[in-house]
Amino acid sequence: MGSESLDCAHPVTSVAAFDHIRLDVADIDIAERFYADALGLSSVVRYELADRVILQMAPDGRPAGVELWQERDLVPAPHPTHHVAFRVADVPALVEHIRALGYRVVTEPHRIEQETVAFVADPDRHTIELNDFLGRPTVGAPA
After folding, report:
1. Model's pTM, two decimal places?
2. Which of 90, 80, 88, 63 has the alpha carbon at shortest distance from 124?
3. Which fold has domain 3-131?
4. Would you say 31 and 87 are in contact if contact means Cβ atoms under 8 Å apart?
5. Partners of 92 in the beta sheet?
6. 91: left (phi > 0), else alpha (psi -120 to 50), else beta?
7. Which residues of 47-71 are buried (b: 16+ CB within 10 A; e: fewer)?
8. CA–CA separation, 86 and 64 (whole Å)
9. Could you tell me which of 139, 107, 136 has the C-alpha nearest to residue 121?
10. Are strands 65-71 and 41-48 parallel, antiparallel or unpaired?
11. Are 80 and 65 contacting, i.e. CB atoms less than 8 angstroms apart?
12. Portion of the chain with pLDDT greater than 70, in percent
């Protein structure tokens, strides 16, 4: 497959946009506080079903975010997803905000090439990457 495939969009047979990632949580309300207070996500929709609660959260209530699942009889895995990444404006400032709220900082902010990254943990031990993507070219952009 050549680079020409990056330039053509097939509306029926290609992905239109990223929508969400599912994260299993032990307590939906505790998880919601973390994603709202620490990361500034807003609730998009909440489903209260007989066997589970599903809460979608995203920046400014717009799609592309996290979908928190609390199943009544599910015990979240001891080693959940490897990590979920969010682009942010100021990695060090957000890390200090998260630390002040009492959440765990896994890796302090540090530079990798043209970006600053840090990792924090949510209440269910999901690792959350925070990055600023400084100077990162987009796919198909001239070098």
Report:
1. 0.74
2. 80
3. 2,3-Dihydroxybiphenyl 1,2-Dioxygenase; domain 1 (3.10.180)
4. no
5. none
6. alpha
7. eeeeeebbbbbbeeeeeebbbbbbe
8. 10
9. 107
10. unpaired
11. no
12. 76
Across 8-12, 81-85, 116-120, 134-138, the highest mean pLDDT is recorded for 116-120
Tens digits of per-residue pLDDT, 97-133? 999 999 999 999 999 888 899 999 999 989 999 998 7
For 111, list phi and psi in degrees, rounded to 5: -90, 140
Per the CB < 8 A criterion, the answer to whether 35 and 46 are in contact is no
Q: What is the dihedral of CA 4, 113, 99, 74, to 10 degrees?
A: 40
First and final C-alpha spacing in the chain:
20
Take residue 133 and report the two structure tokens written for it. Answer: 């993507």
Tokens representing residue 140 in the block? 């198909």
- pLDDT on residue 5: 47
Cβ–Cβ < 8 Å for 82, 127: yes
Amino acid at position 6, single letter: L
Nearest to 143 by CA among 135, 55, 60: 135
